[in-house]
C-alpha cells in the first residue's frame, strides 16, 4: 500500500512561509472574550439592573421595614444598615457564580468552545477573559445594590479601600468557582445544583442577615466551619469596623485569599488536564 | 521544504478505551488540497481536532510549519483555521460580531476592511447585521467559514464543509476553496461526498477504524486502484453465459441483453482482446460496447470493504 508519510513527494512550489510572531500575551484574545461576554450583559441591561434593584428594595421592605422595625440595633449598627454588606455579598456570590458558570457552560453546550480551545490563547488568558467579565458584572450589580441601599438607610463605609478590595477579590474568587462549576456541569440541572443546594444555604447560614453570636450555642460552633462567615464578616468590617465583624478581619483576609488560591489551583488543573473540555 | 503539517505516530485513546487513532503518520505539503475520506467514526474529526488542539493526543507528535503544536501552540494555532463539522455558533449574536470575535481571539487587531472582504467573498456582507438565528442552514455554514478565515490562516481544515448544504452553495464553496489555494493556503478537508474529493483534492487519504490505510495522489490512486468495466450490448438475447467463456469473469444482466466484464486497466493482460476474439469464434455478436472507469467512490468502497 502507499507510503502514508508522504515524504517521497516533491514539495509544491510556494514562497517561504512567514511565520507569525505572536506576542507573549494575547491581549486581543482576552479582550475579545471579555467584550463578547460583557456584550450579553449590556444587551440585557434592563433585566441585569432591574433584578438587583427590585430584589434589594424587597429585602429592605421585608427586613428593614417589617422585621427591622422590631430590632433596634445589631452590634451598634441599625439593622437596616447592618444587612447591607450581607445583601451585597449574597448577590455577589450568586451573580459571580451564575455569570461565570453560564459563560463557560454555554459555549460547551452550543459547541462553540471548539474555537476557544483551538485559538492561540493560554489558560490564563481564557480565565482572564471569562472570569474578568463575570467579576465585572457582579461588581456592577454589587455597586447598584449599594446605591439602592443608600436610598433606604444611612450608610457609612469606614474602610472604603478595603471594601473595594473585598468586593473585587470575592467577586473574582466566586467567578473562578463559577467557572469550575461551568466546566464540571454536563447539564443545566447540574449548573444550578451547587449554587442552589450549597452556596445559597451557606450564605443564609453565614451571617448575611444576623451575627453568628445570635445563633444558639452549638450552631455558633458549627457556623465557624462555614467559610462564607469569614467572607461576610470581613466585608461587614470594612463598613462598620471591628465591632460588627464575627471574626477578626485577619481571619477574613486569610479565608478570602485561601478560597481564591484554591479556586485558581483547580482552574489551573482543569486546563492542564483538559478535564471535561478537551476529551 | 518543511511540510506545512507533519503528523508522527499519532494515537488517541478516549476514556473508555476506545482507540480513535492508531499510529497515524502523515505529511501535508504547503498549498495542496488534501482530502481525508472515511466512514462515520473512522477518526477523521479526531485527527483534525488533535492537530487543532481541541483533543489531546495520547501519544505521538504534530508539527505545523515545523513548529510543535504543544511547545509553539501560539504560532501553530495562529496558522490554522478550522471549520467544524457541527453547526457550532452563537445563535443570538450578529454575523459581524462573531466573525470579529474570531479575529480578536486569534490575536489580531480589528481590521474591518478585511472582515468585509471575507463576508463579501462568502456572499454574507448584506447579512452582517443579522443574528445567526435568522440565517438559513447554508448561510450559517458560510459564517463558520468566515470565522475560520477571519485571522488569515495558512492552513484551513474543513470538516465535512458541505454536509447538508444545497448544490449551489456546494459549488460556491468549492470555488472559495480554489481561491484560497491560489493564495497559497493549504486545505485539508474531510468529506462524505466523494465527488468533492474527486473534484478538488490533490491527494487523498483514507482512514478506517483509526488507521490511515492509504495516502496517495488522487490520479495515482484512481490509476492504481481504478477498474474499468466493459459493457457489451448483445445482438441476440443470451440465456446463460456459455462454458467456453468461463475464463473471463463475466456477468449477464437479468434480461440477457448485456454482458459486463470488469478488468484492471493496469494489468498487462486485460483479457479484453481475447474475450472479443473468443466471442467472435463462438458467433456471439454485439451491436454496441462501452467502457466506464470506476469512480473514486467505487475505489473508496472497495478499500473499505477490503480492510474491514
Uncertain residue segments of chain A: 1-14
Radius of gyration of chain A: 23 Å
What is the 3D form of chain B? elongated
What portion of the residues of chain A fall into strands of 2 or more residues?
under 5%
Question: What count of domains describes the coordinates of chain A?
Answer: 1
As for the number of domains of chain B, it is: 2
Question: What is the succession of H and E elements of chain B?
Answer: EEEHEEHEHHHEHEHEEHEEEHEH
Biggest sheet of chain A: strands, sense, closure?
Answer: 2 strands, antiparallel
The amount of beta strand of chain B, in percent, is: 25-35%
Number of strands of chain A: 2
> Structural class, from secondary structure content of chain A?
mainly alpha
Distance linking N and C termini of chain A: 32 Å
| Total E-strand runs of chain B | 14
> What is the molecular shape of chain A?
elongated
List the secondary-structure elements of chain A in sequence, H or E.
Answer: HHEEHHHHHHHH
Question: Which topology of the largest domain in chain B does CATH recognise?
Answer: Rossmann fold
Q: What is the strand arrangement across the widest sheet of chain A?
A: 1-2
Distance between the termini of chain B: 36 Å
Write up this protein:
- The complex is a heterodimer of chains A (279) and B (308).
- Chain A has helices at 27-43, 45-67, 79-110, 113-117, 123-152, 160-184, 188-204, 217-223, 227-240, 249-273, and strands at 73-74, 77-78.
- Chain A has 279 residues and is mainly alpha-helical.
- Chain A has one domain (27-272).
- Chain A has a two-stranded antiparallel ribbon with strand order 1-2.
- In chain A, helix 2 (45-67) packs across helix 5 (123-152) and helix 3 crosses helix 9.
- With 308 residues, chain B is of the alpha/beta class.
- Chain B has 2 domains: 5-222, 3-Layer(aba) Sandwich (Rossmann fold); 227-307, Alpha-Beta Plaits (2-Layer Sandwich).
- Helix content of chain B is 34%, strand content 28%.
- Chain B contains 10 helices and 14 strands.
- In chain B, the strands form 3 sheets. A 6-stranded mixed β-sheet of chain B has the order 6-7-8-3-9-10, with helices on both faces. A 4-stranded antiparallel β-sheet of chain B has the order 2-1-4-5. Chain B has a 4-stranded antiparallel β-sheet with strand order 12-13-11-14.
- In chain B, helix 3 packs parallel to helix 5 (137-149).
- The longest helix of chain B has 16 residues, at 167-182.
- The model of chain B has no long low-confidence stretch (mean pLDDT 88).
- At the A-B interface, helix 1 and helix 4 of A face strand 2, helix 2, helix 3 and strand 10 of B.
Amino acid at each position: 500500500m502507499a507510503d502514508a508519510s508522504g515524504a517521497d513527494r516533491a514539495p509544491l512550489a510556494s514562497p517561504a512561509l512567514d511565520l507569525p510572531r505572536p506576542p507573549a500575551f494575547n491581549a486581543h484574545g482576552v479582550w475579545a472574550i471579555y467584550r463578547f461576554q460583557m456584550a450579553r450583559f449590556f444587551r440585557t441591561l434592563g433585566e441585569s439592573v432591574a433584578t438587583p434593584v427590585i430584589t434589594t428594595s424587597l429585602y429592605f421592605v421585608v427586613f428593614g421595614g417589617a422585621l427591622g422595625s422590631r430590632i433596634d440595633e445589631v452590634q451598634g449598627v441599625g439593622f437596616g444598615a447592618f444587612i447591607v454588606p450581607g445583601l451585597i455579598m449574597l448577590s455577589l456570590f450568586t451573580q459571580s457564580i451564575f455569570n461565570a458558570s453560564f459563560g463557560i457552560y454555554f459555549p460547551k453546550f452550543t459547541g462553540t468552545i471548539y474555537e476557544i480551545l483551538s485559538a492561540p490563547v493560554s489558560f490564563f488568558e481564557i480565565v482572564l477573559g471569562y472570569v474578568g467579565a463575570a467579576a465585572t458584572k457582579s461588581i456592577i450589580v454589587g455597586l447598584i445594590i449599594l446605591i439602592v441601599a443608600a436610598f433606604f438607610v444611612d450608610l457609612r463605609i469606614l474602610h472604603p479601600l478595603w471594601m473595594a478590595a473585598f468586593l473585587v477579590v470575592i467577586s473574582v474568587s466566586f467567578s473562578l468557582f463559577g467557572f469550575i462549576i461551568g466546566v464540571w456541569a454536563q447539564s443545566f440541572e447540574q449548573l444550578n445544583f451547587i449554587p442552589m443546594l450549597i452556596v445559597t444555604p451557606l450564605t443564609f447560614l453565614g451571617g448575611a442577615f444576623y451575627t453568628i453570636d445570635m445563633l444558639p450555642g452549638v450552631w455558633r460552633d458549627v457556623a465557624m466551619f462555614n467559610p462564607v462567615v469569614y467572607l461576610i464578616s470581613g466585608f461587614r468590617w470594612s463598613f462598620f469596623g471591628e465591632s460588627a465583624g464575627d471574626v477578626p478581619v485577619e481571619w477574613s483576609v486569610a479565608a478570602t485569599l485561601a478560597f481564591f488560591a484554591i479556586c485558581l489551583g483547580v482552574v489551573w488543573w482543569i486546563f492542564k488536564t483538559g478535564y471535561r473540555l478537551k476529551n | 521544504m518543511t511540510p506545512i503539517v507533519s503528523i508522527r505516530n499519532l494515537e488517541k485513546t478516549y476514556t473508555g478505551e476506545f482507540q480513535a487513532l492508531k499510529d497515524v503518520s502523515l505529511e501535508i505539503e504547503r498549498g495542496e488540497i488534501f482530502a481525508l475520506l472515511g466512514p462515520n467514526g473512522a477518526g477523521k474529526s479526531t485527527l483534525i481536532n488533535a492537530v487543532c488542539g481541541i483533543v489531546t493526543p495520547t501519544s505521538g507528535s504534530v508539527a505545523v510549519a515545523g513548529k510543535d503544536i504543544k511547545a509553539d501552540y501560539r504560532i501553530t494555532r495562529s496558522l490554522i483555521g478550522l471549520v467544524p463539522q457541527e453547526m457550532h455558533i452563537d445563535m443570538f449574536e450578529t454575523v459581524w460580531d462573531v466573525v470579529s470575535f474570531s479575529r480578536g481571539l486569534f490575536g489580531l487587531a480589528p481590521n474591518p476592511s478585511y472582515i468585509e472582504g471575507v463576508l463579501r467573498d462568502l456572499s454574507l456582507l448584506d447579512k452582517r447585521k443579522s443574528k445567526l438565528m435568522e440565517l438559513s442552514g447554508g448561510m450559517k455554514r458560510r459564517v463558520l467559514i468566515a470565522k475560520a478565515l477571519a485571522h488569515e490562516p495558512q492552513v484551513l481544515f474543513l470538516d465535512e464543509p458541505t454536509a447538508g448544504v444545497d448544490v449551489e452553495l456546494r459549488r460556491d464553496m468549492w470555488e472559495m476553496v480554489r481561491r484560497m489555494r491560489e493564495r497559497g493556503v493549504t486545505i485539508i478537508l474531510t468529506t462524505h461526498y466523494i465527488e468533492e474529493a474527486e473534484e478538488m483534492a490533490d491527494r487523498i487519504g483514507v482512514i478506517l477504524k483509526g488507521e490511515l490505510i492509504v495516502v496517495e495522489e488522487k490520479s495515482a490512486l484512481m490509476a492504481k486502484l481504478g477498474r474499468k468495466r466493459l459493457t457489451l450490448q448483445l445482438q441476440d438475447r443470451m440465456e446463460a453465459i456459455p462454458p467456453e467463456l468461463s475464463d473471463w469473469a463475466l456477468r449477464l444482466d437479468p434480461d440477457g441483453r448485456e454482458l459486463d466484464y470488469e478488468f484492471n486497466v493496469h494489468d498487462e493482460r486485460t483479457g479484453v482482446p481475447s474475450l472479443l476474439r473468443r466471442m467472435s469464434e463462438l458467433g456471439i455478436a454485439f451491436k454496441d460496447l462501452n467502457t466506464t472507469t470506476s469512480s473514486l467512490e467505487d475505489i473508496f468502497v472497495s478499500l473499505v470493504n477490503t480492510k474491514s
